[in-house]
Amino acid sequence: MDENNMNKEQNIKPVVLESEMKDSFLSYAMSVIASRALPDVRDGLKPVHRRILYAMNELNLSPSSAYKKSARIVGDTMGKYHPHGDSSIYDAMVRLAQGFSMRYPLVDGHGNFGSIDGDSAAAARYTEAKLSRISMEMISDIDKNTVDFIPTYDEENKEPVVLPSRFPNLLVNGTSGIAVGMATNIPPHNLGETIDGVIKIIDNHINENRKTEVEELLNIVKGPDFPLGATILGVNGIRQAYMTGRGRIIVRSDVSIEPIDNSRDRIVVTSIPFQANKSTIVKKIADLVKEKKLEGISDIRDTSNRNGIKIIIDLKRDANSNVVLNNLYKYTPLQDSFNFNMLALVNNQPKVLNLLQILEHYLDHQKDVVRRRTQFDLDKALKRSHILEGLLKALDFIDEIIALIRASKDGPQARERLMETYGFTFEQAQAIVEMRLRQLTGLERERLEKEYEELRALIEELTAILENESLLYGLIKEELLVVKAKYNDERRTAIVLDPGEIDFEDLINDEMSVITMTYMDYIKRLPLCTYKSQNRGGRGIMGMQMRDEDIVKDLFITNTHSNLLYFTNKGKVYVNKGYEIPEAGRTAKGTAIVNLLSLEGGEKIAAVIPIQEFAEGSYLTMITKKGILKRTSITEFSRINKSGLRALTIREDDELIAVLNTSGDNNIFICTRNGLGIAFNENDVRPMGRTAAGVRGIKLNKNDYAVGANVLKEGYELLFVSELGFGKRTDIDAFAIQKRGGKGLRVYKITDRTGPLTGISLVKDTEEVMLINSSGVIIRLRASDISTLGRVTQGVKLINLNEDEKVISMAKISEEQLSYEEECGEECGIEQ
After folding, report:
1. Quick one: which of 35, 530, 548, 609 has the fewest CB in 10 Å?
2. CATH code for the part of the protein at 22-191
3. Per-residue pLDDT tens for 371-410?
4. pLDDT tens readout for residues 497-514
5. Does 705 qualify as catalytic in the annotation?
C-alpha cells in the first residue's frame, strides 16, 4: 500500500449514522428557525428581508433617489450578505413591494411586481425598486451605533443583527413562515393603533409607575388591519389571540346588494380576505354554479382595476339575494379564517407571544436603540467640545502660538511643543496646527463661542436623557408620535359582531363571587356580599342545602372573568371561567362538578387557582399530602383542553392538597396536621416541567400529613384553625426560613381540646375569614377579632360546634373583596 492511500485511510473516522443524522438535522433545524423562517421580535424582519433593506440602503436607494434595477439589488444582497439563491431573494423583495401583501410596503417597486390574481412578478432584469418612505424609519440612525453588527458569511463586510425600526413592524406588517416543527402567522395591523399601544405602556410607566395589563391594550389595538380591507366577524378570536398568542378569526369579503331592476339584484364584492387569490375565487364561484352547487346566479364578471376590486355577481329573477350571499360565504373563499400564531425570535429563541409581550419587547429594543444613539451623539459632542475649548484657548495666545509654529521644523514638532508649552491635548494641538487663518477674525471667534455654548447645552440634554429613564421614555414617545403623524391612515378592515357568536363575557358583570364546593363536588356561585360579618364565637348562617351524606368541603373567592384552574387530587388540571359556574341561591345545593369538567373516575378537586393572565415569571407551586413539592411556570398551563392536562405525576399513595401562585422568589410555608411547619424560599426548588414528580418539601413523622401551604408576605400573619374550632394568628417572623426537606418547627400546640389542624391562611387585621363546619354552617369573622399568639400555643375559640361537628375548611376575604362588597351594598341582598 502506497503512502497516499495510508494517509487517506488514517483521515477516515468511523461515525454512528444515527448520531450523525440527529446532529446534522438539529443543526439544520436551528439554522432554519434562527436564520431563515422566523422574524425577530424587535424589527419584525426575517434575515433575508433585513439584508435586502440594508443592501438597498448601502446602495443609497432612498425614496428621493432614482430607481435601480432589481437584479442589481438582488446581486448586491446575494454577493455581500445573503448567500442563497437569487430567486428566493427576489421573491422576498417582491413581497415587500406588494401593496396587497404588506399593509405598509417597505420597498417602492417600479414595474410588474405581481398581482392579487396570482400573477408572478416580471423577471428581476425588467423591474426596478428603491426604498419606500416608511422603510427609512426602519433603518434610521443605523450609522449611530444603535444596533450591533456582525461579520457577513465571507467576513468581508458587516451586517446588522437587527434594524433600529422606529415603529413596531412585527405587528404593523405581520409575517408568516414555516420553520422545522414550528410556524408563525401574524396578521398586519394599523400603524396608529399599534403605536398607541406602545404609548399606553410608556404612559403607564411614566405617569403611574406600573406595568400594563394586556386587557388595557385590547381597547387600543382593535384587531388586524388587512391591506385590502375585508371584515372581521366577532372579537372572541381576536381577544384570545392577543391574550395567548394563538387564536382564530373569521374574515369576510366586503359586499353590497344592489338592484338591477325591479325583480333582480346583483351582489358586488369590493374586497376579499387577506392572501386570497381573486381569480381563484371567481373561478371557484363559476365552477360551483356550473356544478349546480350554487343556485340563483346568472352571471359573474370581474371588473376590478387599479382603483380597486369589483366582482359583480348577477342573480336570477327568483333568487333570494341573502340566501345566495350566505351560500357564497359558506362554499367559497369569500369568507375564510385566519389562524394567529404569534411566534417570533426573542434573544434568538422562538417564543409564542401575546400582544403585550410583543409591544414590550419592541419597547425594550427602542430603549436600547435610543440610549445607544444618545451615547453616540454625546460622545461626538464631547469630542467636538474638547476641540473647541482648545481653539478658543489658542485664540487667547494667538501671537505666541503663531511664533511657536513658525519656529518649528514641521507639523509634528509644532504639535509636541504646543502640548508641552500650553498643556493642550493631542487632539487640541492637532486642530490648532491645522487651523486656518480665517479663524483668527473676530467674527470667526464669535462663531466658535456660539458653537461651544450650543454644544454644552446639547451635552447637558443628552446626559440627562441617559441618566433619567422617564426622559428616555418621553423621547421614544415623541419619536413614535412623529412616525404616527407621518404615516398613519384610517383602518381598512372593519370589525363587526359575528351573527353566530354571542360574546358572553361582554354581557357578564365583572364581580367578585363566592364559589362553594362540597365533598361530593357540588359547586355553585353567588355574590360575595351574600354573607355579612359576625362576631367571634357566633353560630354562623346556613350556606348550602345538602344531601344527608354530603358536607361542604371548601369555598373560593374569585372574579367572574378569571380563568379558574381546577387541580385534582390525582395531579390533573382543568379550566373554565368563573361565570361558567352556575349561580344559585344561598341555600341551594349547586351543580355537580362533573357537569362542568370532564373529570376521570375517582378524581376530586384539590385546589382552584384564579388566573387573570398566563405571564412569564409566575409559577404554580404544588404541594402533596406526603409533603412533595413541585414548581412549574404558569405559562405551561395557558392551553388546557376540555379533557385536562397532567400537572403533576403523583404516587399511588399520595394526593395533591394545595397549589400556590408564586412570583419566583417567594417564601413558602407548609403545615402538617400534627402542628409542624417549615418555611423556605421557593428558589430551593428548581422549575420543573408539567409532568415532573417534584421533590421533598417537608419530612413527615409517622401518621402525619400536610394540611396546607401558603406564600409568606410582609405585613401578614399566619392564621391556624383546628378541627374543634380553635385558632390563632402568629407573626410570620416567628417562622425562621430553613432549607426545604427538613422536619420544620412546632407551629401549633395540639391538645384534645383543640383537635388537629384543619387548615392555615395568610391574613392581616383589615381582612376577614370564613369557616365552614361539617354541617354546612358558615361563619364569617374579622381577622382582627382573632388573637395573635406565639408559635407554640393552642389558640382561642373561633366557632361554637355541636358534639359531632368539626371545622373542615376556611377561606380568606381580602381588602379588595371587602371594598367591592361595600360598593355593592344592599343591591346584592346582604343577609341580615
Report:
1. 548
2. 3.90.199.10
3. 999 999 999 999 999 998 888 888 888 888 888 888 888 8
4. 776 555 555 556 677 777
5. no
